[in-house]
Amino acid sequence: MRIRLVLIAALAAVAAPSSASASEIIDRNASNVSLKVAQNGQALVSYNARGKQWNVLAWGAINALHPTPGGKQLDFKLDYSGGYGTYKRDVWKTLRNTCRPYDGPELQWFVAGCKAADGSYWALQSWQRALPNYGLRAAAKQAVWELRLSHFRGELPVLTVNLNWAYRKYHHVFGSFTYLGRPVHGFKSTAAGVPLDTFGRNLYLDTFNSAYGKGWLRENSFLMHKGTGKFCYGFYRHGSRPEGHGVKYRATIIGPGVLPDSYWQADALDAYDQALDLEMHAAQKEFLAGDSLCKAV
Fold first, then answer.
1. What local confidence, expressed as pLDDT, does residue 90 receive?
2. 196 CB neighbour count, 10 Å cutoff
3. 222 touches 236 (CB < 8 A)
4. DSSP character for 195?
5. CA-CA distance, 224 to 177, in Å (whole number)?
6. Residue-level pLDDT at 293
7. What contacts 244, CB < 8 A, 6 or more positions away?
8. 124, containing H or E segment
9. Which of 6, 125, 165, 180 could serve as a FRET partner for 285 with CA atoms 20 to 30 Å apart?
10. Which stretches of the chain score pLDDT less than 50?
11. Structure confidence at residue 129 (pLDDT)
12. Under a CB-based contact definition with an 8 Å cutoff, are residues 185 and 224 in contact?
């Protein structure tokens, strides 16, 4: 009997994309973005948004912690006062940039970055996290481009995504999100899959030139499984919405702590291939062994 693994319907973790947030978000719909880092490790992000110029100081965090029950993930200290508050007057005007040109790992959605004097990297990325699921038209608040800041050195998180079929018909993905070989996951979430702690992360999955329409549109967003950091998802029909089968797929996930956001993209599988289907489902069964949110049927 053929073994298939599908996500249990009651735990499909359809997130409310506009409700999740993370410490590294700086602003929305920013333009004219620049990044400077002082010798003391304070980063200055300057940009225009909502009709004015902003100068935001960020400091106090690098990389990420592994998930711990009741713990709190790393985050930046942020000062939006333009250099006032705990800083001497107009410090942003005199901050001396000691950050060298960025030569770090390639990042999707890259806006600006640099290499600090201590060898660590700072980077800004911007992407549309809050798009509605199932290819629905985005309202203005859902279509915003979020500007996100990261600070890191060493290995980055690893987003693994595999493609296969479900029930010999539906396109399907499964994979994991890890950091330094350990799963990235949270401990609390709503029934809809919205993280309720600072460790949980949602994967934002997009489809290209699908039944929803031309171009890239959001298919779904769903939570990394507690304890394993793994996931499985099928492109099924949702109510009146058609299957979101596309010719390409991509996924973005917010990095743990203040690490950069990770990205994956691939062409969809060609016409159904039984031999490949059997091979991939065997691989999937082994990969997801022990994950109770994916059920063999």
1. 64
2. 12
3. no
4. B
5. 7
6. 86
7. 134, 135, 207, 210, 211, 212, 217, 219, 220, 235
8. strand 121-127
9. 180
10. 1-23, 83-88, 296-297
11. 97
12. yes
Q: Are 149 and 258 in contact (CB under 8 A)?
A: yes
The token pair at 272 is 């159904």
pTM: 0.90
> What DSSP designation does 222 have?
E
Angstrom distances, CA of residue 27 to CA of 53, 57, 125, 259, 268: 12, 13, 11, 17, 33
pLDDT of residue 11: 32
Q: Give the sign of the dihedral formed by CA 176, CA 177, CA 182, CA 184.
A: negative
Instruction: Characterise 32 by phi-psi region: left (phi > 0), alpha (psi -120 to 50), beta (else).
Output: left
| pLDDT computed for residue 271 by the predictor | 94
Residue where the block lists tokens 């106090």: 60
How many Å is the maximal CA-CA distance in the chain?
Answer: 72
pLDDT at position 201:
97
| Sign of the four-CA dihedral 95, 101, 103, 109 | positive
| Whether 133 contacts 18, CB under 8 Å | no
Question: Residue 108 has which token pair?
Answer: 């999707």
Q: For residue 273, which of 165, 112, 160, 145 has the smallest C-alpha distance?
A: 165
Q: What is the pLDDT of residues 132-180, one digit of tens each?
A: 999 999 999 999 999 999 999 999 999 999 999 999 999 999 999 999 9
Rounded Cα–Cα distance for residues 287 and 297 (Å): 16
Residue with tokens 């460790």: 199
Question: In sequence order, which residues have a C-beta less than 8 Å from that of residue 282 and are 6 or more positions away?
Answer: none
Taking CA atoms, 97 is separated from 37, 87, 245, in Å, by 5, 17, 47
Instruction: State both tokens at 124.
Output: 């800004």
Q: Output the six-digit token pair for 281.
A: 């489902």
Q: Which residues of 206-227 are buried (b: 16+ CB within 10 A; e: fewer)?
A: bbbebebeeebbbbbbbbbbbe
Q: Give 182: exposed, middle or buried? Use CB within 10 Å, 0-12, 13-18, 19+.
A: exposed
Other C-beta atoms lying within 10 Å of the C-beta of residue 179: 22
